[in-house]
Amino acid sequence: VSPDEEGICSGKYFTEAGLVGLLEQAAASFSMAGMYEAVNEVYKVLIPIHEANRDAKKLSTIHGKLQEAFSKIVHQDGKRMFGTYFRVGFYGTKFGDLDEQEFVYKEPAITKLAEISHRLEGFYGERFGEDVLEVIKDSNPVDKCKLDPNKAYIQITYVEPYFDTYEMKDRITYFDKNYNLRRFMYCTPFTLDGRAHGELIEQFKRKTILTTSHAFPYIKTRINVIHIGKIILTPIEVAIEDMQKKTQELAFATHQDPADPKMLQMVLQGSVGTTVNQGPLEVAQVFLSDIPNDPKLFRHHNKLRLCFKDFTKR
Predict the structure, then answer these.
(1) Could you tell me which residue ranges the DOCKER domain spans (predicted)?
(2) In CATH, what number does 236-313 get?
């Protein structure tokens, strides 16, 4: 609807019936998209209209559809798939306005990195020529000075929705964690001497947090990034995160209903009998054998000890 057209406000949509029609379409579309929680929100607007008109027939239909929506939420618990997200950066003057822009792309659930890579390579390869387009394979920050000015570069990274701890109190269900998303994160491991991976004691991690201009799901499947934040984790913080992750995996595996011995065996093997010597034992030997000299590290040291306490309980 564009407001500057003559007579637009006397059009068919600018009536109560028009609004009802649009809302019904919206509810049907949300239902097809599997966003049953949003169906409920749309009907919250519709119900008072029908109640005011004493339209029992319409109300009966709506409540029937609401029952369907809620029973689908219950039955499809854990089976719903919403989307996979990728950060795509464009570099090179060939892209014009897109040069140095970054976007978050929303792809159908379980899209592999190779699939989106292949698609974008094909699309931009046709436009600029296969030999001009290059895909940057890592997720390190791009240094423009090192790029060939006659080429077009695309960098694609898998990203995950990012939430602060306080947000997790409200984002309880799987739907909450996949709806109204504006912040995404990816991690890049690095060491101070330039290699990606090193010994535990020298392994740092950079978390990059992207904020988009609108929230997903949106009418477009890609939204530009308007803010980039970076958090650097020191080696002991990396270790704390790894231990928390292992503890979560154990908790998940031990609380599965029905129990899944295969899953539990895999998680246990990964926690205890690690073939690579970067397992929990190694972490404890590296970070917990001595009390750190630097008082700034006491908090991390204690936190890691608490992580191990949790871990051994599990």
Answers:
(1) 1-314
(2) 1.20.58.740
